[in-house]
Amino acid sequence: MKLPETSDTIAALATPPGAGALAIIRISGPAAFSTASSFLAPAQRDPEHSAARLLSVKNGPALVDRAVVVFFRAPASYTGDDTVEITCHGSPYIIRTILNLAVKSGARPAEPGEFTLRAFLNGKMDLAQAEAVGELIAAGSAGAHRAAITQAEGGLSAEVRGIRTALAGLLAEIEARLDDSYEEIPALETRAFARRAAAARGKTLSLAAGFGAGRGIRDGVKVVITGAPNSGKSSLLNALLGYDRAMVSRRAGTTRDTLEASLDIDGFSILFTDTAGLNARAASPLEREGIKRAEKAIALADTIVLVKDASVKESPGDRRAERETARLALKGTRLLRVLNKADLLTGKSRRAPGCLLVSAKTGDGLPKFKAALVAEQKKVFRDGAQAVVTSARHFAALSGAAAELAGLEAVLKKNRPPLELAAEHLRGALAALASLLGETTPEEVLGNIFKNFCVGK
Amino acid sequence: MTAFNYPDSFDVLVIGAGHAGCEAALAAARMGARTLLLTQDLDAIGLMPCNPSIGGVGKGQLVREIDALGGEMGKATDLSMLSCHMLNTSKGAAVRSPRAQCDKKMYQAAMKRALEREPNLRVVQDEAARILTKGRKAAGVLTARNTRYNSRTVILTAGTFLRGIIHIGMDSFPGGRYNHPPSNLLSKSLSGLGLKLGRLKTGTPMRLHARGIDFSKCVRQDPDSPAAPFSHFTAEIKNTLLPCWITRTGSATAEVIKAGLHRSPLYSGKIKSTGPRYCPSIEDKVVKFPHHGAHHLFLEPEGFSTEEYYVNGLSTSLPEEVQVAIVRSVPGLEKAEIMRAGYAIEYDYSDPCQLDYTLETRALTGFYMAGQVNGTTGYEEAAGQGLVAGINAALKVSGREPLVLRRDEGYLGVMIDDLVSKGVDEPYRIFTSRAEFRLLLRTDNADLRLAPRGFALGLLDPALKENFEAYRAAAETILAGGKPAKLPPGPWTMEKARATSAIEKIYAMYVQRNRKEAEKMKKFEHLRIPPDFSYASAKALPNEARHKLEKNRPLSLAQAGRIPGITPADVQLLWVLLEKRKGGRP
Questions:
Q1: Most buried by CB count within 10 Å: which residue of A144, A367, A433, B584?
Q2: Which residue stretches of chain A have pLDDT < 50?
């Protein structure tokens, strides 16, 4: 079970990810100073409180960045614990590398709202602020949850899941034997078992290494633009970007593939995906493929912008787009309804409450639309919050699991390996992966046992 | 007919004298509560209607824990033991566990004697028909004979009796166990209290006459020598132990079963409720594992003075004629005589999520439930719950703090926490894989973990306290590499202190990690959620979490975190809200 931990050292990016020339990484907890010092040069043995200094961030002998570092001694810090704030360059590569260095020297990637929770519990905040703290945790965790599911795309998530399944299977083999009252299950074939454990560890290590090297998961808000054909989705994207990224025409079905583009709004990085219109009567295989990709994009979105044509009555296509969006979107995904072509509005045209009225053509309503896109993020980034850098979480979880699996291998090398200790390591490895994929419960393991072994009388 | 108002009133009234009921009644009485135990049948006290066996992996740990808290199960087992094996000897100490065969009648006699000798306890033969209430509080019990017993608390240990239906082949008839009528009135009374009931199923194999068994075709399994006692307070096992015998089913058995499946109440759809995956019927085993050519059968004597043998591994609800064919298809059992047919039983259980961590129902103050009625299986699981319910009822009437064991303190804690926070969808059995602190929860240290509680509750003999404390100090000293002081005489010996320290030493690194995790959890166990905490006003919590917490009403943040579907973020939020309510700081 995952309970909040308040006595270890946590690290996180304290500025919006993916944008901005500078980024702040915050490390807080009893070992914050030693954690930071392990990759800062020259080493800071007894740093002065609250004084800024320019230091080198080193990954082994390699220089990662020159950063401004401030050390805050407890209790005079944001959280009330020892805290280090590192202001570095805003490149995603540098941010990831520094976070991974912190993880390697013992810090844990912070959960959403964790800095604020500590500040609150350490009496750094007024009790009246409790509600605000609560909102922050709720908003942050919703975002992180989505991030865990949506950001590990490209088969990565499947790979991590595969490791988890393999480990749960290995654990079931051991647990079945430990709990077998009648000792009927044949003894574990240690050599074959060790080979499978080693394979899982190899996979875990190579995945972790990928994240360690700053493998690109793009951090940012994923906004997918969708709607009925010819509602002006691509025009809207072009208008937001300020240049013609997408081809537009009066014909429905002009956009076949999904198009991606990024934009900074108020310091937040927004990754737009323009999709093919969800057309029931797709004319060509190409258009059908486009729709398939659109559906996939919707399922991975943080925010969905549903575009309708303001100049005509609501069409079956609009209703279909609404339905499809509701079906495909993940629970908790934000939905923004936009009525485009406001410039063509006439008296008989519709106005729907809760919809943003914009004109891609004249630019009317665009500033309001942009503000709406980052409103949620702004809420999360109120004082003291932190971004969830997915790659750092993956790195920490996978390295933790790999370390446990190394322990498992050592146990398996013993003469008559003690299975209950092997189980401890497998449980540890699964617990490490829990932050990515959720816990592996005893019920899951038991289910595995009863499926595969004929046990019991 | 007007009710007879029983002249004496009680603090604790226990319904049912099975393994849960006996422990509940004894614990409450020994803690000074005026206790009444109601049973349908005085001759069925402490009956083992399935296998007369106590212990097994996980279960053995439970019995040791019950014993360390002053329970009776371990002692009764030692007195009636007829065979005994230490299990998992090839594996580590944490999963090693004793398992004993008992003389069924001797076990009952030992338990009945213990009940009868308890000064604060009265045992009465009558059937409970209705739980009496006063407002939202339990007030006593009305019996089938229309006698009214007034009691401040009531503990229901109904086993499989609530609307029990027995199946043998396609025949079925009402019964709480073979030859005993079900308690249908009580089932109705529970529904009337607003308790949610469900259906579960379990089963038992046939019993054979020894003269039909060709032991020369079976493998002899000798008992351990010397036999290890279950109880901390038993110096040695005095009975002369008997062997058990092993044979196996073959392809012939599988054929017989397949041919009879259409007459199986399980496979014809007649039985719809879920049985324990851990105790599959032989028809289940053959269907689900067709590639397993053979399934082991253990032939276990039911007593010293009977010819009856229990056929461990042949649980079935097929028709009697198919049962005969099944048995006779097994090598060594060709001439078998079935004395009792195997059967399946379906019964009502009460969703354990409706209980508090003290086993008190949330629907009715002072009303507790323990044992199989809570959806568990096994005598040990039942006894453990009975003990905890009895202790808590006695604590409640004397206005003392309840006893809630943590998951790092014992399998008792693991089991009750699992039941209350997760509920059941099949009869719940304890497994060591359910314990995240498995290396801490061993048979050798059950006393170190729980005897201090036993002494504090007044359930262990205070005269032994000095011996125990010296033992505890000695174990610690040995572990630290020092020379321990001599122990005063008593059940706790230096030899035992050395043995437990040696185990602790082997596990040292891991135990340390377990303890660290346990400490962290403990901190959250201590973050109590007040019983009147209003989740409805906790707007920041997501709806789903709010409903779950409202239904479960965890006592602490740690328990809240263990409810399925409650996220770490929910726990953090709840923490913030609690701090705000307290208006102080942790």
A1: A433
A2: 151-154, 214-217, 383-385
Interface of A with B in 148-187 (CB under 8 A): 175, 177-184, 187
A134 at the B interface (CB within 8 A)? yes
Question: Pairing mode, if any, of strands A221-227 and A303-309?
Answer: parallel
pLDDT, position A153: 47
Distance from CA of B16 to the nearest CA of A (A): 26
State whether B419 and B501 are in the same domain. Answer: no
User: Does residue B163 share a domain with residue B41?
Assistant: yes
Q: Tell whether B573 lies on the interface with A, counting CB pairs under 8 A.
A: yes
A400 shares contact with chain B (CB less than 8 Å): no
Are residues B113 and B17 part of one domain?
A: yes
Contact at CB, A442 and B288, closer than 8 angstroms: no
- Containing domain of residue B569, as a range? 526-582
- For chain A, the domains span 10-129, 156-214+390-452, 221-380
d(CA A57, CA B45): 74
Supply the ipTM of this predicted assembly: 0.92
Give the distance from residue B431's alpha carbon to the nearest chain A alpha carbon, in angstroms. 6
- Separation in Å, CA of B489 to nearest CA in chain A: 35
Residue ranges in A114-232 assigned as alpha helix (H): 114-121, 130-150, 156-178, 190-212
Q: What pLDDT was estimated at residue A326? A: 84
Q: Among partner residues A141, A187, A441, which is closest to B569 by beta-carbon distance?
A: A141
Q: Tell me which fold the domain A10-129 belongs to.
A: Gyrase A; domain 2 (3.30.1360)
Task: Give the whole-angstrom CA distance, residue A381 versus residue A174.
Answer: 45
Residue with tokens 């604590």: B395
Q: Which of B521, B539, B555 is the last residue of a domain?
A: B521
pLDDT of residue A360: 86
Which parts of chain B have pLDDT scores under 50?
A: 585-586
Rounded Cα–Cα distance for residues B509 and B196 (Å): 45
For the segment(s) A156-214+390-452, the CATH number from 3.10.180.10, 3.30.9.10, 2.10.109.10, 1.20.120.430 is 1.20.120.430
- CATH number of A221-380, picked from 3.10.350.10, 3.40.50.300, 3.40.190.150, 3.30.450.40: 3.40.50.300
Cis peptide before B119 (omega within 30 of 0): no
- The type of residue at A62 is A
Task: Say yes or no for a CB contact (<8 Å) between B94 and A138.
Answer: no
**C-alpha span between B209 and A292 (Å, rounded):** 69
